[in-house]
Amino acid sequence: MTRALVVYESMFGNTRAVATAVAEGLARTLEVRLVEAGAAPPTLDDVELLVVGAPTHAFGMPRPSTRADAAKHGTGPGVGAERGVREWLARLGPQPGLPASAFSTLAEKPAWLSVIGGAGRGIETGLTRLGCDLVAPQGRFRVQGMTGPLAPGELARAAAWGEELARLASGRPWRAFGATRSELTPGS
Ligand SMILES: Cc1cc2nc3c(=O)[nH]c(=O)nc-3n(C[C@H](O)[C@H](O)[C@H](O)COP(=O)(O)O)c2cc1C
What we know:
This protein is of the alpha/beta class. It has helices spanning about 15-25, 65-70, 85-90, 110-115, 120-130, 155-170, 180-185; strands at about 5-10, 30-35, 50-55, 100-105, 135, 140-145. The protein has one domain: Rossmann fold, CATH 3.40.50.360. α1 (about 15-25) links the parallel β1 (about 5-10) and β2 (about 30-35). The chain is globular. Bound molecules: flavin mononucleotide (FMN).
């Protein structure tokens, strides 16, 4: 069965809840592993679909200074974490042709915040730099305040996004889904 890896970071638990729902959606058709970025593997030899998610901090991916800021606003499972998806992606080697997608959580208000940007765009840039193939539009999920909770319906939407992502990845005409990574890498 095709193996998907979901890597996330989360200060207050909202992105973790979304990541769990995304993994549940993926698991309807794929074998899924869900890991927090600080514990994510340094290599992806057996991964055939990579999904990366983070909370939006200052219009982009969290960085050490914004994580420190977050700690002033509340507590949660990721408050105090030193490494997140930005640091994990920076250490990952090239992943040519690896199917991938990004998701983020964003504040619901003010609405203009999300027009400016979100962590998903930065994650997509990081994935593209590694050579990943973005197989689906990024997922964006709303939180009602800085520390949450998630807006109503977002967990169901996250699970549906995960399910759709699995479908889009398996529908790629150029790849034999379930083949090994070396078979998937053009020219190898
Ligand atoms: C330091 C900091 C900066 C933030 N900046 C933004 C922002 O630019 N845009 C936005 O929509 N939300 C912003 N937020 C709200 C976060 O998106 C929200 O805290 C997050 O989605 C909660 O997810 P988590 O529980 O997984 O940490 C910010 C939050 C913090 C703590």
